[in-house]
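Now for a chain:

_____
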Amino acid sequence: MKTVRVAIEGRVQGVAYRAWTQRQAQELGLAGWVRNRREGWVEALFSGGEGAVDGMLAACANGPAAARVSAVRILGEGEPAPADPVFRVRPSK
């Protein structure tokens, strides 16, 4: 199991990035969440098998068609895995 919290920067708000992330994470069987940050970036927590998490991180570098990702930064590794196995969109923070 691997759990990482990331910041996704660039043009990632107003382009359906959160909904896209939720779909991708669910397809990969990941738990966690995604939310917009008031500062203009997207924050996400991905938890699951190492290969699935690594695949999600690679996918986040591209994002949905309208997004323009400039960076995917790892904010924390080894964070506690979420108790809820469902990947959710959280309110903005």
In short: Residues 10 and 69 are 5 Å apart (CA to CA). Strands lie at 2-11, 31-36, 42-48, 68-77, 87-89.
